[in-house]
Each structure stands twice: as structure tokens, then as C-alpha cells.
């Protein structure tokens, strides 16, 4: 909903005043460059300057696009994380898993552990090769967490018990060993983050923590508190429970849409939800045909809107997959119509632009 969301310290957004001051400070440099920085490059510079001035201890920096040639890749981290490789932004990153894996593995740095949850052999081969080329230890994620229950408020997992301080000698070995860092026994853990894919993310986080513990002291209670307090707006976010459920999800590629569909099926079955409605808008550079084919058959009612972006797709282009769907000229009218349907569950997805607009309206 705001550019300030992109730069946060301890879940507090950078203020508009500070954002404006830093932009003013950096603008003369940007204007003097013959190779004019992109918007994302300029935002990355603002973030780095802000973090430096605030003297933060640890930063979590998310790549904008790809990795190898991304603006964020000027840093040398204490751990790199490559969650997985899917076909997205194919116009810029390549149209094969191998090409995208090459772009993403470009974040690997000498002597910096790279943690990955990727399991596809064609992607792993590339990641292994690129890590070996620069001398980055590769840590393959192990299955240490399994989901045992889920509600609209939380997911419950059984996790191998953490040991507070792994010894420095653990996990110095080769491929996929990592620091063990976990003692015997199991613990239960509740995540407020919803979605089946969070099990995979949780396993990735546990592996990354093992890498961090080689240089930082991170007690078990800090791990637990961090995981239990984690929030991610617009990612299977329950914006409303009564009189019906509203799910906001910024899924904008087939992989994410498939995960959303599967999660909605689980919730509808568990809670016996019958009538479902979809509010959908998407950008024209996304694989909207595949997204529509995956998602639209799941819903009784479909409402199509145009995201507030110059890259937005005309909703009429979605008509072949939703012949009975209703099209509204703006998101507010679409949301009003969707709420009037009084479904058991309303899902808002297709673009973070749509999700952000709906969050503001709600």
C-alpha cells in the first residue's frame, strides 16, 4: 500500500519524512549518472543508506529480480538463501529452469553459506556448479518440520528440538550437511503464517539459522519468538472472519496460484465452506492464461477487475475462462459486488496491486 513498506526496522516502516529526506539526499547523485538508475536501484540505495544511518545489527535483504545482476547483489551477506526456482519473469530471466537458476545462484559469494530448498535436479545442478565456482558452501535443506494442524489463526508444526548453541565444529563438511544445531526430541510450534508452503519455508529458515549460528548466538527462545511473531501481509492473509472469510493473497504466477488453490481446498473441506467467490485482477506481463485455468474452476462466482497499474491487464481478456464472470471498472465496485454475494469465502488474488487496494478499502 506504500513504498515505505519496503524498508522496515523491527516491523516499523520507514517514515514518509525519512523516506523523502533520503530521496532528496540521493537525487543529485542519481541525476549526475550517465547510466540513470532504475526506480528499484534508487529504492535499494535509500534502504542501504537508511540501514547504515540507523546502525542496524542485521538486515534481511530480498532480491528484486533474479539475483546475479540485481541491485541488491552489491552486499556480502553472512548467509545467502535461494528458496527455489520457478518460471517467473521469463521475459528477463530466461524461459528455462536452468537459465533462471543461473540468474538466482549469482548471489553466491566466496565462503558465504548458500542455503537452498530447491530439489529439482536440473536447477540443483546449476546451483551446485555456481557455488563451487565461487567457493560458496552449499547447504541443502533437510525436512525438520511437519504440519500437524491448521486453523484460520495459525498452523501447528512438529519441529525437531533446537539446540541453543551448536559447536563451531558442526556442519563444516561438504554438500548439504550444514550445522546440525538441533538436539534430540521434538517440539510443537505455531506459526501465524498460513499456507501449506510455509512448511517448506520453515525448513529453509531452520537451515539458514544453523548457518547464522556459526557466527551469532541465537538462543532457542529467540528462534521460537521470531517464528511465532512473523507476519506477511497479502500472503494467505485472513482479512476478515465474519460474516464470511476474506482471504488476501498476492499470488501472481502459476506456481503461487496452484499453492493458493490447494490451500483453499484444504480450508473449504475442513470448515465445510460451500459458496466461494473470487475477486481477480492481474498484470498483462504475467502468465494469466495458466493462472485462470488453474484457479477459476474452483469458484462459484468470479468478479474481474483491473489493477491500478500501467501494466494492468484489461479484464475482458480473461473472459474466455470466466464466461459468466462479472467485470467492474474499478476495484472498489468489484469488492462491493463481491461482498454483496455473501459467500462463505471470498478470495482476492492475482496481483499485489489488487490486494493492496482491497486492504485499503477494508
Description:
By secondary structure, the protein is α/β, with parallel strands linked by helices. The chain folds into 3 domains: 1-59; 145-229, no CATH class; 237-361, Mur ligase, C-terminal domain (Protein-Tyrosine Phosphatase, Chain A, Alpha-Beta Complex), CATH 3.90.190.20. The protein has 11 helices and 14 strands. The chain has a 6-stranded mixed beta sheet, covered by helices on one side. Strands 3-4-5 form a 3-stranded parallel beta sheet, with helices on both faces. It has a 3-stranded antiparallel beta sheet with strand order 6-7-8, covered by helices on one side. Strand 11, helix 9 and strand 12 (301-304) form a beta-alpha-beta unit. Helix 1 (16-32) crosses helix 2, helix 4 (97-104) runs parallel beside helix 5 and helix 8 (254-270) packs parallel to helix 9. The longest helix is centred in the N-terminal third of the chain and has 17 residues, at 16-32. The protein is globular and about 55 Å long. The relative contact order is 0.08.
Question: Topology of this protein?
Answer:
Layout: E1 8-9, E2 12-13, H1 16-32, H2 39-53, E3 80-82, H3 90-93, H4 97-104, E4 114-116, H5 121-134, E5 138-140, E6 145-150, E7 155-162, E8 182-191, H6 198-212, H7 220-229, E9 237-240, E10 245-248, H8 254-270, E11 276-280, H9 288-295, E12 301-304, E13 326-327, H10 331-340, E14 345-349, H11 352-361
Helix pairs in contact: 1-2, 4-5, 8-9
Amino acid at each position: 500500500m506504500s513504498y515505505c513498506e519496503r524498508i522496515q526496522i523491527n516491523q516499523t516502516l520507514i517514515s514518509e519524512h525519512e523516506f523523502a529526506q533520503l530521496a532528496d539526499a540521493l537525487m543529485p547523485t542519481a541525476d549526475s549518472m550517465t547510466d540513470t538508475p532504475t526506480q528499484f536501484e534508487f529504492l535499494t540505495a535509500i534502504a542501504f543508506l537508511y540501514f547504515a544511518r540507523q546502525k542496524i545489527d542485521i538486515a534481511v535483504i530480498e532480491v528484486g529480480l533474479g539475483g546475479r545482476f540485481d541491485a541488491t547483489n552489491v552486499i556480502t551477506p553472512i548467509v545467502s538463501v535461494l528458496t527455489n526456482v520457478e518460471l517467473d519473469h521469463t521475459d528477463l530471466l530466461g524461459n528455462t529452469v536452468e537459465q533462471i537458476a543461473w540468474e538466482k545462484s549469482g548471489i553466491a559469494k566466496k565462503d558465504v553459506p548458500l542455503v537452498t530448498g530447491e530439489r529439482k535436479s536440473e536447477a540443483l545442478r546449476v546451483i551446485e556448479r555456481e557455488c563451487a565456482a565461487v567457493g560458496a558452501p552449499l547447504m541443502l535443506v533437510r525436512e525438520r518440520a511437519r504440519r500437524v494442524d491448521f486453523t484460520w489463526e495459525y498452523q501447528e508444526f512438529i519441529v525437531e528440538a533446537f539446540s541453543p548453541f551448536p559447536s563451531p565444529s558442526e556442519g563444516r563438511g561438504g554438500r548439504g550437511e550444514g550445522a546440525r544445531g538441533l538436539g534430540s526430541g521434538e517440539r510443537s510450534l505455531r506459526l501465524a503464517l498460513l499456507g501449506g508452503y510455509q512448511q517448506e519455508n520453515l525448513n529453509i529458515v531452520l537451515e539458514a539459522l544453523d548457518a547464522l549460528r556459526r557466527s551469532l548466538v541465537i538462543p532457542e527462545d529467540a528462534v521460537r519468538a521470531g517464528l511465532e511473531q512473523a507476519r506477511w501481509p497479502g500472503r494467505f492473509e485472513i482479512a476478515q472472519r465474519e460474516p464470511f472469510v476474506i482471504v488476501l493473497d498476492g499470488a501472481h504466477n502459476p506456481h503461487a496460484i496452484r499453492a493458493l488453490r490447494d490451500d483453499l481446498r484444504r480450508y473449504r473441506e475442513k470448515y465445510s465452506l460451500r459458496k466461494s467467490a473470487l475477486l481477480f485482477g492481474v498484470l498483462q506481463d504475467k502468465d494469466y492464461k495458466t493462472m485462470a485455468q488453474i484457479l477459476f474452476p474452483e469458484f462459484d462466482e468470479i468478479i474481474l477487475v483491473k489493477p491500478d497499474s500501467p501494466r494492468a491487464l484489461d479484464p475482458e481478456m480473461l473472459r474466455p475462462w470466466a464466461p459468466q464472470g462479472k467485470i467492474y471498472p474499478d476495484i472498489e465496485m468489484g469488492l462491493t459486488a463481491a461482498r454483496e454475494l455473501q459467500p462463505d469465502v471470498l478470495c482476492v488474488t492475482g496481483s499485489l496491486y489488487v490486494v493492496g487496494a482491497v486492504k485499503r478499502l477494508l
